[in-house]
Design a protein that fits this description.
The protein has 163 residues and is α/β, with parallel strands linked by helices. It has one domain: Dihydrofolate Reductase, subunit A. It has four helices and ten strands. An eight-stranded mixed beta sheet has the order 5-4-3-6-1-7-10-9, with helices on both faces. Helix 2 links the parallel strand 3 and strand 4. The mean pLDDT is 95. The structure holds NADP nicotinamide-adenine-dinucleotide phosphate. NADP nicotinamide-adenine-dinucleotide phosphate (NAP) binds next to strand 1, strand 2, strand 3, helix 2 and helix 4. NADP nicotinamide-adenine-dinucleotide phosphate binds next to strand 1, strand 2, strand 3, helix 2 and helix 4.
Length: 163
């Protein structure tokens, strides 16, 4: 399973239900990586989609409170183990065809299943406040650096492998 995140200089990944920046190139990159795949997201990130699944992606929402929304290609699971199970058994996807797409608590919850990380480095330090969320602390020893992709607009993507 892979993880994809855009992370600011202060490790921030979100503000309230939103991204505190706008980089169309990064959104296009996210789409190019996840199109046709299964994405695993937390209930709050799902809420930020306002009921509209992303096109051409199968969704697994991690939540202990959400009712099954009855939307095609959207599945709700209550535990990280169940999310991994349904990626494999319901959507018949595994490995590089499954992406953990946030937010912050979902990155932590799914961490033990992640083999590779695709981290877009956002060249900003958004102001911190009550609704800020952050990429979970990852001990350096848990990952090793694989490569870097330079992107438009001062962005780069660092790719890591889980040890
Ligand atoms: N920068 C990026 O790449 C990126 C990507 C995606 C999202 N984001 C941002 O991240 C922020 C949201 O992050 P967040 O951490 O607040 O929310 P989140 O991870 O999207 O959703 C949190 C919810 O997921 C469910 N969940 C997570 N772990 C679980 C577990 N182990 N078992 C059962 N349910 C679990 C819980 O839902 P219930 O409360 O229903 O149980 C929890 O309240 C937003 O600002 C969003 O814009 C950023």
């Amino acid at each position: 399973m892979r993880l994809i995140a855009a992370v600011a200089k202060n490790n921030m990944v979100g503000q309230g239900l939103n991204l505190p920046w706008y980089y169309p190139d990064d959104l296009a990159y996210f789409k190019s990586k996840t199109k046709g795949k299964t994405i695993i997201i937390g209930r709050k990130t799902w809420e930020s989609f306002q009921g509209k699944p992303l096109t051409d992606r199968k969704h697994i929402i991690l939540s202990s409170t959400l009712e099954v929304p009855g939307v095609k290609d959207v599945y709700v699971t209550q535990t990280p183990d169940a999310a991994a199970f349904h990626a494999r058994e319901t959507f018949k996807t595994a490995g590089e065809d499954v992406w953990v797409c946030g937010g912050a608590s979902t990155y932590s919850s799914m961490w033990r299943y992640v083999d590779e990380l695709y981290i877009t480095r956002i060249p900003e330090r958004p102001p911190e406040n009550k609704g800020s969320s952050y990429f979970p602390h990852v001990a350096v020893g848990q990952i090793w650096y694989l490569s870097r992709e330079e992107r438009a607009g001062d962005l780069r993507v660092d790719i890591y492998k889980r040890r």
